[in-house]
Amino acid sequence: MAASYPPEVTPAEGDRLTEVAKDWALAHGLTVRPPPAIISAEADPVGILSTAVPVTLFPSPFPKVCFDQGVAVQRAYNELYASISQDEDFLAHIVKEIGDSDTFITELWKVHLRVKAEGYVQPKSLGLFRSDYMVHQDHAGSTPQIKQVEFNTIAASFGGLSSQTSLLHKYLASTEYPLLENSIKHGSLKLPPNHSASGLASGIHQAFIEYGPSVTGNQKCVIFLVQDGERNVFDQRHIEYELQQSQEPSIPVFRLPFSQTLEHTNTVDGPGRQLLYRPPQLPNHTFEVAVIYMRCGYGPDDYPDKSAWEARYHLERSAAIKCPTVLTQVAGTKKVQQVLATPETPSNPSVLGRYMSTDAASISNLTSTFTNIYPLDETEAGLKARKLATDPELCKAYVLKPQREGGGNNIYRSAIPQFLKTVPEAHWPSYILMELITPPPIKNTILRTGKLEHGGVICELGIYGTCIWDQNTKEISHNEQAGYLLRTKGDQSEEGGVAAGFGCMDSCTLV
Ligand code: ADP
Ligand code: MG
Ligand code: MG
Question: Based on CB atoms within 10 Å of each CB, which residue in 16, 206, 345, 448 is the most buried?
Fold first, then answer.
């Protein structure tokens, strides 16, 4: 490896790498639909254009011990979140703690209660999870370890693009890096294989099989439930293509905009409540939906009116295997993460043991990834957190999070006290306060919309997991680790979302 890695490149080398990387990205679908600022909707009404996603020129160095730690703990995390999803009483308590001020979570829970009243007909659940981490080091020279940023249970994205990003860097490592002035010898980077797209697809495939044979006599299908105007389409398509390839003849897969759910699907009257889908472009076909993979429905914007909530209820009560169910979505709230991470005290027994009582080693592997997270309620921990969050100095080490997904929702550092002044105190318990993780500094070059940005970066590792379980028997029939994501952002930016425009795709070279 070069003396200083990643190397700085000369302007001419930068031009060369830009050309090679962007063409590889376009040729291999490491792409998104262009944002309106680049191509207006009027200029491309049918959506025939795509653009390369922002990506680092080099795989970022990532400590091998940390990478291994994340991979090793993923199946235990899958099991933990499958178990939490089965504990309705615990989740009901969580929803109560979040309180009425969060109308999104309240509405979501109502969907569950309505279906529970009539009885669920599908005991199986599919989880396509992603656990996100940053590297933490107590002090220079100490062994780095990963600390969890959050655990995603709905619409965890970039698994389709991430395996492609790993391939791009592998390609550059064998073709371009050896030619640089600061040459990186072929074979000197340690690039872990990354099967995120096929790994996620195989989770869906397994659920498709476990659904069992069609009951209505129609061919079975999988639905990718998506947002209107989704730009991150190719990320989803890579998973779809892997899924279709997983058997012969291939599985029918359809992209259904959430807003069109009620128009194009119905449930069979009677105890089975099978979900039928009629693709609008194929009027002679009706499919029985085995699996619904949601890449939407995670935030209030997806529910603009009452009919969107009816659509969610309609899907939830059907026999299709949901990824995720409402219960699993609620299990993924930051409030759950906080309750799990809140240390054991006499008045607050650790909840973790309840879910993983059989394996003490797994529990300690999990808890070693936790960082300090506090409630903002009136418990002892909550009162301490309120002091931290409202203090103009102490707040600088924290991030305040509402129960939201998809990036752009958090309040950072010095902005916290001011923000809390605008929130009635009765609503504070719907937030959690989390210690900021500050990874050791590294540098890289980001290629974004054809331009290079060199400087300090912060990396966030995501490990994917797939899990299928039975809510009634509590049996876990499938539990796998499914590749990784490395997302990188400039160190001046608080948020790291690629889709939200803050971060970029990256891969690891293990150090
Ligand atoms: P979301 O569900 O919206 O993705 P996250 O909890 O992942 O919410 O927060 C969004 C981003 O904020 C993360 O990707 C990360 O860049 C940053 N962030 C969140 N929590 C922390 C933390 N404890 N330390 C450092 N950065 C954080
Ligand atoms: Mg999230
Ligand atoms: Mg996140």
Answer: 206
